[in-house]
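W.,

You were right to be curious about this one. When I first looked at the sequence I had no strong expectations either way, so I just let the prediction run and decided to look at it fresh. Below is the sequence, 195 residues in total, followed by the output.
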Amino acid sequence: MCDRSDANTSAQADAGKRADLIRSAQRHLGVPETSVSSEPTGAPVWPNSHRGSLSHWGSKTVCLLAKGNAWDWGVDVEGHADAEAVRSISQEAINASERRLLAQSDDKGRFCALVFSAKESFFKAAFPRVGRVFGFDALRLLSAPGSGQMNFVTTIPLAPDLPRGTQVTVHYIQVQDAVITWTALQASSPNSLAR
């Protein structure tokens, strides 16, 4: 058990680690080291010289950063789901057709983590243009994950350039007991597709 001051200290330490990771990525990318502020929603406000996305799970933190502002990025890291998390994810984040794919999977914990994480990555990439919270049901997996990518389709219109039926590709890698997913949406371009 920890008291509120311990939680605040931990949150400040986590924020410091994320800021250090961003600065390190900025140096590696060769862009100016600048602070990344947050909107009231918690979404990062990136400078014009680069865009990116952050995620953390347990002791793992990832930062995806790219030069320029032509793409909105989303990245997520998630641990494999245990039996309780599989039940929860399959009820809240996975639709009926995805549950059929889940039933065919040999590793339900990994499958659930991948689909949940992919939808989180898409949310982060889409949020700058959508500007509001939307549910997991806005994206439907088209086939089982394979070869480091998953293919989805939007099920509802999210923005003028993200109509229902937009094809979205989310990439992934396995890292020990976790998965990292990422995607990008071309910024402010009509009928843009994820890459």
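Here's what jumped out at me. The radius of gyration is 17 Å. And, maybe more interesting for your project: The first helix runs from residue 4 to 29.

Coffee later to discuss?

I.
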